[in-house]
Write a structure and sequence with these properties.
Layout: E1 2-7, H1 12-22, E2 27-33, H2 42-45, H3 64-68, E3 73-76, H4 83-92, E4 96-99, H5 109-116, H6 123-128, E5 130-131, H7 134-141, E6 146-148, H8 152-171, E7 176-186, H9 201-204, E8 209-210, H10 218-229, E9 237-244, E10 251-259, H11 261-264, H12 268-276, E11 282-284, E12 302-308, E13 314-321, H13 325-339
Parallel strand pairs: 1-2, 1-3, 3-4, 4-6, 5-6, 7-9, 11-12
Antiparallel strand pairs: 7-10, 8-9, 10-13, 12-13
Helix pairs in contact: 1-13, 8-10, 8-12
The chain binds NADP nicotinamide-adenine-dinucleotide phosphate.
Length: 355
């Protein structure tokens, strides 16, 4: 069995990790940390875990690192800046690290410091970290010691663009015009479990608002995904507009693209189907179908639909996922499976919940 620890088990991605790993056949959760709920059983705080988990939250203070070093893998479901303080000591002890925050996502130190307003604690380790999108980085993940689990919006954006950028590279010609517009919506759980006025029931219910329009932390991650991960031969300008919508879970990203003359000639439906036909968690919907967020709720699936206008000049890629699963904890478990040479779908092959 793989001995796992979860740091930050009281948050929304933390409880999602407990839910997923508790039924994973190859994993035992041996340490669950929380500073605010230390000493309490997880199922006291989350009754959904009654009968599923006997775990108790612990705060070992100075002893935390020593306890984490006894595990095989540590998941950090914490705010940005926490994992990078301990990752070096953990990897030196042979422990693998999956960070759900942004400490190991951006390879550019300048970008990290600009967007997260703090210096990076272990720049050398960052260079060896692998960006945790298995559908693109599977080979590197199998050798990785540290994985930067992607942000939720970038997961939808990068996977929504992958077939297009890859085909541009193969054909060595522009198929889309340089400007990419990503209009994205997230459920409220995307902002975490901490109490904040803007996330109150009365503020978020029956309401719909944009945020981060002049600049959002996920923009450089999406740009990095296009330039480095997908190795685009062409430059693109990304306009990213996130919104908060009155639902608990779910994310819907609409990617708007203008096609070049060469791009108009492409059969985009087949291109997407061919690109993802071997991916267990990516579902390309039949032509003409619109995805909805409840079709992926509580599952690790990401569904994509490709729509082209009648003049064939515009392509819209619609992507849905559960922000807490494929957008966070599920993807982290998928990454762990790859890191440990397990079947990638282990512990993740369950149907979404409807209604
Ligand atoms: N929510 C999403 O949909 C989503 C999607 C993708 C990625 N993420 C990223 O995943 C991470 C966790 O997100 P979340 O939504 O689960 O956040 P959350 O609900 O706010 O939970 C944060 C957790 O971190 C712990 N924590 C806070 N400060 C800490 C510190 N200094 N040291 C150790 N533990 C600390 C908290 O527990 P105690 O205070 O009890 O210690 C809590 O359990 C964030 O970096 C977030 O950006 C979230």
């Amino acid at each position: 069995m793989i001995s796992a620890a979860i740091v930050g088990g009281t948050g929304y991605t933390g409880i999602e990790l407990i839910r997923l790993l508790s039924s994973h056949p190859e994993v035992s959760i041996d340490l669950l940390t929380s500073r605010s709920e230390a000493g309490r059983r997880a199922d006291e705080i989350f009754p959904s875990l009654r009968g599923i988990s006997d775990l108790v939250f612990s705060d070992l203070g100075d002893e935390t690192l020593t306890a984490l070093q006894k595990c095989d893998v540590v998941f950090f479901a914490t705010p940005h800046g926490v994992a990078m303080q301990q990752a070096e000591a953990l990897t030196q002890a042979g422990v693998k690290v999956v960070d759900l925050a942004a400490d190991f996502r951006l390879q550019s130190l300048a970008d990290f410091e600009h967007w997260y307003q703090q210096p990076h604690a272990c720049p050398d380790l960052l260079k060896t970290a692998v960006y945790g999108l298995p559908e693109i980085n599977r080979d590197k993940l199998s050798e990785a010691l540290v994985v930067g689990n992607p942000g939720c919006y970038p997961t939808t954006a990068i996977l929504g663009l992958k077939p297009i950028i890859e085909l541009e590279n193969v054909q060595a010609e522009r198929l889309i015009e340089p400007r990419i517009v990503i209009d994205a919506k997230s459920g409220v759980s995307g902002a975490g479990r901490q109490a904040k006025l803007a996330l109150n029931y009365a503020e978020t219910t029956d309401n719909f608002n944009a945020y981060g329009v002049t600049g959002h932390r996920h923009l450089p991650e999406i740009e990095q995904g296009i330039e480095q991960l997908l190795s685009s031969q062409f430059s693109h300008r990304v306009r990213f507009l996130p919104h908060l919508v009155p639902m608990i879970r779910g994310m819907f990203s609409s990617i708007h693209l203008e096609l070049t003359e060469a791009g108009k000639a492409i059969d985009w439906q087949s291109t997407f189907e061919d690109s993802y036909h071997q991916e267990a968690f990516i579902d390309v919907l039949p032509a003409g179908i619109y995805p909805d967020t409840r079709s992926v709720r509580a599952s690790n699936r990401l569904r994509i639909a490709v729509h082209q206008n009648n003049e064939r000049s515009e392509l819209t890629v619609l992507v849905v996922q559960d922000n807490l699963v494929k957008g966070a904890a599920g993807q982290a478990v998928q990454n762990m499976n790859v890191m440990f040479g397990l079947d990638e779908t282990l512990g993740l092959n369950f149907a979404p919940i409807v209604p």
